[in-house]
Amino acid sequence: MAVESKICGVSDVAALEAAVTGGARWVGFVFFPRSPRAVTPEQAAALAPQAAGRIERVGLFVDPDDALLEETLRKVPLEMLQLHGGETPRRLGEIRARWKLPVMKAVKIARAEDLAAVADYAAVVDRILFDAKAPKEMAGALPGGNALAFDWRLLAGRRWPKPWMLSGGLKPENLAEAVSLTGATAVDVSSGVEERPGVKDPARIRAFLDTARGL
User: Fold this and answer.
1) Is 135 a residue whose pLDDT tops 80?
2) pTM for the complete prediction?
3) Burial tier of 155 (Cβ tally within 10 Å: 0-12, 13-18, 19+)
4) Whether residue 48 has pLDDT greater than 90
5) Is 144 helix (H, G, I), strand (E, B) or coil?
6) How many domains does the chain have?
7) How far apart are CA 71 and CA 31, in angstroms?
8) Helix (H, G, I), strand (E, B) or coil at 18
9) pLDDT for the residue numbered 213
């Protein structure tokens, strides 16, 4: 079975079209102003129709308040919400119940102990995303999209109560190794298919998706 892919941080038509035609299942719009991949609800609304019926649209948020979620969802049709901040299980449950959309929670990993949080999150969300935790000394680190990988062996042989996705430092060149070590059936890429931070390279998107499809 081909590995399913999410292309995150899409902000222009060319990247979106590369994701769609390359066979990605999901495309991610980042609603976090500090990110070089950030889009406004208005920008995402202009791109969203191109994806309608062709690919699932995911909104990435970091500790959003209700007002931001309300404004964004009023303007942008999304099929899933991705929460990438310090949201508690209770807050995740509230978001899922209020907006009636599937919720994916990012769990940031640096060592085995970080996996302990999964059980509490899995009780209230639809999907888990494993991403790399940035070290404290990393200046300007973002909640995600830092081109960092964690030790994939931490996930080897593990089973989780909800579907999950692998993220963190993935790129066409290391995707096969990452999937082999973790057993991932879904993967998420952002910086690994860029020319520079925030600028997607359609050729690298296609290369990543070609690799995933062959795994």
Assistant:
1) no
2) 0.93
3) buried
4) yes
5) coil
6) 1
7) 11
8) helix
9) 94
| HEC profile of 65-117 | CHHHHHHHHHHCCCCEEEECCCCCHHHHHHHHHHHCCCEEEEEEECCHHHHHH
- Other C-beta atoms closer than 10 Å to the C-beta of 192 total 23
Q: Select from 91, 75, 71 the least CA-distant residue to 83.
A: 91
DSSP 8-state secondary structure symbol assigned to residue 146: S
User: Which of 73-111 are b and which e, b meaning 16 or more Cβ less than 10 Å from the residue's Cβ?
Assistant: eeebebebbbbbeebebeebeebbeebebbbbbbbbbee
Q: Residue 214 class from Cβ within 10 Å (0-12 exposed, 13-18 middle, 19+ buried)?
A: exposed
Q: What pLDDT shows up at residue 138?
A: 47
**CATH number of the domain enclosing 10:** 3.20.20.70
- Which of 78-87, 101-110, 129-138, 184-193 is the least confident region? 129-138
Catalytic residue set = 8, 131
Boundaries of domain holding 173: 4-213
